[in-house]
């Protein structure tokens, strides 16, 4: 009790010693104590919270934590349903006081204010009974009884358990057969009930149409703060009719790169008309477009890697390069000239001089370019990423070229004009070419010539990436002697080699050659890619069985702007018969 004196000093209260009080903030309004007590798990759960302290799990015992359990209590919104999910509490350390405040109880009798009439009951006797009192009512009673109340400290509240987390979704398990079995039998403290627990373990039971839910649906402990704000780049305007519209001024400009089909009758001669005018662009982008057009004027077809190497010496980034390509040229979706930026107005299908600009694509796995210690082999050339290249007065990077001795692991596409390997010169400069371009497959070269070129180059790239020496030119000569044009099945018989004479590697290349010719590179070679004479069809022969060894094509479509040689392989692009997966 408070010590009363005549001074204006606040009263002093003494706390009882050795009191252990734990506060539990029940999230519901408790009108029935028994239901509220049961919703917290009963005596056993509350005893667990009282006997342990918040932070016990962090105490180290023999350098180990979580030796003592952390006091946690759960509250159920359906205390009579043992399968209901509970809200888990979070314990915090507090320094609050528990007080017992006694005020005169209201009798329930009333009289008219200001009169001397006797007090009478305004309601029945039940109005005298009150299960609980609200905070405003308690304050009102204290104001009405300034000198007729007493305060007694019970103790200090050192721990408080709060239910501030996000509640999980509730599932009514009484409708699930397996949950009913658990509730009626497994959760009953009786051997007879437990012995009746039965779950069908027969595979493929058709009567099982419902399954128990996961332990939790919500993975967040705290609700997300939805503080919606207006997008910074969104502005509101009016259209021609006066209607309000919204416009995102921070959205990147959509690139419009013209990618045509390989058999399209016409090719683009100018940039798309819906592009912004070149003179309206920023100055550095205009300069990049001008330089890109100058490069294509000297080399009308170029791969992305070559163009980036050519522009990098002037300090242009890869992002700027992508913006400039749509103003400088177009590309084919597939075919022998795929993944090239082609100058507007130039159709490489019309003149055989463009055969040297055909592309060869090989699917390269960069993991094979590392040795046992994780270091790159010395036979590999690694160029820095284009976006990090700075302007330099030095020579242009030659990672787009293939000399047969080193190979760059930053790309997978080569143009025939960039192949400087002397061992492949006889195939590249072959005068025996097609009269008309096969726009869907082999291009200007015959099937045998292109298959030999791809097989030999594929073998060299594979060996260089693995850190091995390439075969001798004498061994590659066995492949070069294969026919340039394969029209009949009988012509493939002369490509059969003796492993004891030429070796296993050469025999494997022979298998790849036959598989590549059989599959073909487009519809102009019939069902199995055997070339037809352009002056008339050849005699049909029986189907040729695929001997394996070659990599099957996967048709892909994608414009030049979306191509990414140096970063990743989307698995869509062998445009010349064989995907040539170097493995």
TrEMBL record:
Alphabetized Pfam families for the sequence: Tau95, Tau95_N
InterPro entries: TF_IIIC_su-5_HTH, TF_IIIC_Tfc1/Sfc1, Tfc1/Sfc1_N, TFIIIC_tauA_Sfc1
Record carries keyword Transcription: yes
Record's keyword terms, sorted: DNA-binding, Nucleus, Transcription
GO molecular function (one): RNA polymerase III type 2 promoter sequence-specific DNA binding
Superkingdom field: Eukaryota
Gene Ontology, cellular component aspect: nucleus; transcription factor TFIIIC complex
Localization of this protein: Nucleus
Ranges of compositional bias, category Acidic residues: 532-575
GO biological process: transcription initiation at RNA polymerase III promoter
Region (Disordered): 371-399, 524-583
Record's keyword annotation contains Lipid metabolism: no
Domain Transcription factor IIIC subunit 5 HTH: 211-363
Residue ranges annotated for the Transcription factor IIIC subunit Tfc1/Sfc1 triple barrel domain, each copy included: 22-171
Protein name: Transcription factor tau subunit sfc1
């Amino acid at each position: 009790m408070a010590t009363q004196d005549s001074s204006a000093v606040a009263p002093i209260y003494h706390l009882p010693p050795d009191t252990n009080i734990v506060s539990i903030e029940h999230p519901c309004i408790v009108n029935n104590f028994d239901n509220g007590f049961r919703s917290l798990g009963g005596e056993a759960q509350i005893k667990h919270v009282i006997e342990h302290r918040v932070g016990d799990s962090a105490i180290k015992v023999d350098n180990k934590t979580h030796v003592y359990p952390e006091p946690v209590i759960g509250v159920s919104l359906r205390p009579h349903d043992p399968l209901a999910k509970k809200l888990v509490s979070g314990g915090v350390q507090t320094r609050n006081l528990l007080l017992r405040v006694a005020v005169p109880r209201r009798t329930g009798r009333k009289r008219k204010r200001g009169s001397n009439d006797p007090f009478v009951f305004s309601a029945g006797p039940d109005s005298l009974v009150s299960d609980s009192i609200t905070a405003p009512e308690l304050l009102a009673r204290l104001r009405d009884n300034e000198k007729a109340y007493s305060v007694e400290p019970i103790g200090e509240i050192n721990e408080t358990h709060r239910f501030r987390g996000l509640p999980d979704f509730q599932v009514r398990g009484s409708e699930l057969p397996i949950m009913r079995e658990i509730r009626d039998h497994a959760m009953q403290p009786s051997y007879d009930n437990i012995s009746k627990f039965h779950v069908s373990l027969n595979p493929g039971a058709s009567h099982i149409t419902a399954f128990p839910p996961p332990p939790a649906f919500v993975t967040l402990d705290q609700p997300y703060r939805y503080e919606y704000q207006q997008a910074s780049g969104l502005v509101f305007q009016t259209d021609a009719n006066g209607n309000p519209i919204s416009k995102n001024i921070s959205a990147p400009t959509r690139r419009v790169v013209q990618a045509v089909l390989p058999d399209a009758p016409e090719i683009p001669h100018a940039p798309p008309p819906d592009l912004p005018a070149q003179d309206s662009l920023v100055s550095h982008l205009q300069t990049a477009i001008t330089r890109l057009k100058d490069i294509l004027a000297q080399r009308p077809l170029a791969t992305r890697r070559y163009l980036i190497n050519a522009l990098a010496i002037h300090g242009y980034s890869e992002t700027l390069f992508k913006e400039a390509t749509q103003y400088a040229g177009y590309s084919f979706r597939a075919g022998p000239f795929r993944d090239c930026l082609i100058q507007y107005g130039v159709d490489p299908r019309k003149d055989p001089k463009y055969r040297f600009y055909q592309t060869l694509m090989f699917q390269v796995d960069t993991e094979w370019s590392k040795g046992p210690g994780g270091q790159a082999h010395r036979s590999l050339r690694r160029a820095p990423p284009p976006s990090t290249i700075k302007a330099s007065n030095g020579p242009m990077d030659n990672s787009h070229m293939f000399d047969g001795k080193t190979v760059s692991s930053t790309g997978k596409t080569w143009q025939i004009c960039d192949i400087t390997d002397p061992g492949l010169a006889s195939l590249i400069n072959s005068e025996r070419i097609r009269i008309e371009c096969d726009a869907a497959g082999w291009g200007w070269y015959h099937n045998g010539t292109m298959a030999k070129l791809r097989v030999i180059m594929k073998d060299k790239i594979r060996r260089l990436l693995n850190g091995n020496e390439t075969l001798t030119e004498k061994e590659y000569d066995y492949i070069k002697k294969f026919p340039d044009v394969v029209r009949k099945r009988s012509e493939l018989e002369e490509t059969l080699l003796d492993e004891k004479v030429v070796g296993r590697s050469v025999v494997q290349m022979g298998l790849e050659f036959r598989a590549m010719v059989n599959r073909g590179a487009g519809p102009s070679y019939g069902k199995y890619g055997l070339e037809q004479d352009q002056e008339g069809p050849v005699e049909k022969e029986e189907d040729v069985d695929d001997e394996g060894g070659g990599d099957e094509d996967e048709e892909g479509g994608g414009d030049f702007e979306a191509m990414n040689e140096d970063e990743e392989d989307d698995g869509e692009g062998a445009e010349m018969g064989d995907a040539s997966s170097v493995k």
